[in-house]
Amino acid sequence: MARRLEGEPVSLWVATAGGTDYPPLVGEVEVDVAVIGGGIAGLTTALALKRTGRTVAVLEAARVGTGVTGHTTGKVTALHRLVYTELRASHNENTARVYAAANQSAVGHVAQVVADEGIDCDLRRVANYTYAESKDAVTAVRAEAELAARLGLPAEFTTDVPLPFAVRGAVRCADQAQLHAVRYLQGLAHAVHGDGSAVYEETVADKPHDGTPCVVAAGRGTVRCRAVVVATNLPYGGQGLFETRCHPHRSYLVAGRVDGPPLDGTFISADEPMRSILSAVVDGATWLLAGGEGHRVSRGGDAAERYGHLAAFAHDRLGVPTIGHRWSTQDGIPLDGLPYVGLMSPTAHHVYVITGLRKWGLTNGTAAALIVTDAVNGRDNPWAKVFNSNRITPVASAARFVTENVRTAVATLGSRFRGHAGTGAPAPGEGAVTEVDGEKVAVYTDEEGRRHALSAVCTHLGCTVEFNAADTTWDCPCHGSRFGTDGHVLQGPATRSLPARE
Ligand SMILES: Cc1cc2nc3c(=O)[nH]c(=O)nc-3n(C[C@H](O)[C@H](O)[C@H](O)COP(=O)(O)OP(=O)(O)OC[C@H]3O[C@@H](n4cnc5c(N)ncnc54)[C@H](O)[C@@H]3O)c2cc1C
Ligand code: FES
């Protein structure tokens, strides 16, 4: 019997946003730019392009805001834990300075768009903190505060940290923000749609043809355009071979209602296990979110246990009485710590990519959108070189390239040989991979005892999916595709459903 977990398995943001209802693409349309993906990266790009006079078509496989962005924590900040210390060590101080400038500008851009478009997304300007509980961590946050300030951020070390438990100190980065991510995306989509531009939902795009014009076949239609932006979190169909440079990393969140006002700031721990904290007022109720338990997708272990750790943290340290929501999602971690933004490959002409947002895509994705907008318009951008998707990565990341790809290869091989759970049916709420006539079949038994059988072969590159009982999903350990129990794609790089089986 599946273990009962606290909370509805749906993100607070998706649960409270209401829906969108843009039509699917049917027939042929002609625009300046096709943007594939209705997340923060795609929609920010689409609106920025529209504001420069371009017509755009946004192609979204599901609904706006239901991807990674709909499952984020919601911090809009240039302080990404201890990122500046990391970037200075793995690159140099100038690279860290450009990263800081791009992300701090992104915070301002988001706030400006919310004001200009009148988007009702609970935007709050708050300080963001990286806090330390141990002696070692306090040394690290002191160094990060000093460096971040030198790089031009409004950062300082402080011992005055507005958390409900004592800490030794923190980096405080002033004038950052938080928002309701799905409401923000819905506001962006609303601003994009109209005047020759359009948003199409339930429209899965095929690999674009890079030419003059570019052509994107999608759903029951086709887009002809001068440029294409692939903003699907991880590119699909092997485009740019980003699977080898960008590895999906999953994290978990729980959220519960509390009395009183929200905390005056957003927070992340410098110590391990990493904990991320945000509180928000949604429709008059105060919610506290606790996140963490991150891991490479191929090394998940017991997801229920991970939710249990976060729930314990929320109860014991944050005083959350009951967990109302729990969810997990994943984002691409680039080998050298910098997002990949620019042309899809060294030989691409008009097809651009945004990926590797390293779990900080609300700002990295926004900055990336501004870089791509400049590139499409033939303008220079001061951050483009550092984020260049076709950069030669430093020696340090060459070793990681080998390690990460060996791990993927091991996950691939492991997944091909795993998965014979015998012939018995799984218990209600459980799933298992079994073999029927030589074929691997993914069988899920729902709470009413009905069995649902699918091919267990991931439609991306053929690994065997695994059942995730805590999220009720079929997850691929190789590059992170996730499927619902009816087989539909929840997260790529797969674009095709798992076919049903008898
Ligand atoms: C647990 C967790 C917490 C996080 N918290 C924060 C935070 O507090 N602050 C922060 O800055 N970042 C955070 N991040 C990272 C941030 O949420 C992501 O970087 C960002 O949301 C990614 O946006 P995206 O546009 O790349 O992807 P998505 O939001 O996933 O958008 C991509 C879209 O493309 C669509 N798509 C895919 N394939 C196709 C296709 N073939 N055709 C058409 N459409 C397609 C998908 O349906 C999807 O809607 C967090 C990440 C995780 C994992
Ligand atoms: S084989 Fe790549 S995600 Fe499944």
TrEMBL record:
Keyword Iron annotated: yes
Top-level division of the source organism's lineage: Bacteria
Alphabetized UniProt keyword annotations: 2Fe-2S, Disulfide bond, Iron, Iron-sulfur, Metal-binding
GO molecular function, a single term: metal ion binding
Keyword field contains Disulfide bond: yes
Cellular component per GO, a single term: cytoplasm
Rieske domain sequence ranges: 418-502
Protein name: Glycine/D-amino acid oxidase-like deaminating enzyme/nitrite reductase/ring-hydroxylating ferredoxin subunit
